[in-house]
Each structure stands twice: as structure tokens, then as C-alpha cells.
Amino acid sequence: MPRPDLPEPLLTCSQLAARLNVRPATIRAWTSRRRIPFVRIGSRMVRYRESDCRALVKTVAALEDLGGARGGGANRTDGPQEAI
What we know:
The protein is α+β, with helices and mostly antiparallel strands. The chain is built from 3 helices and 3 strands.
């Protein structure tokens, strides 16, 4: 269980892609389209909160339970349809 006095872990694009089983290019596309939440560090560096990753996985799982993402299933590269 995470301790409340420690900062939440931030993931790189590659780490998030590995957890979601997608290519890093997909994560970058979702980020540029603002389909997934991210944290900008400085002017160029982007990281992703671990808690947002878990929420994204739950959202995708819920969509799959409902019959898949609208219009194309889990292999789409435009991110989840529901806001996180």
C-alpha cells in the first residue's frame, strides 16, 4: 500500500505502453490528442501517474465488458472513449 507522505510514482511513455500492452507510439498519439491524463515536467518531458494508469485499465476493461470500445474494439489508437 502506498504511503501518503511519498509522491506518487510517475511512469515514462515506454513504461505505460508496456503496462497497457500497446506501442509507445500509441501512448504518444493518445497524449497529443489529450485522450489520457499526463503530467508535463518542464517544457517537453511528459510522465503519467500510476493511479491514472490503473484507472485507464479499469475504464478499458469496463468498455470491453460492455461489448468493446465504440466503433472498433480494443485495438484502436485514439484512446478510451470515456473521460478519466
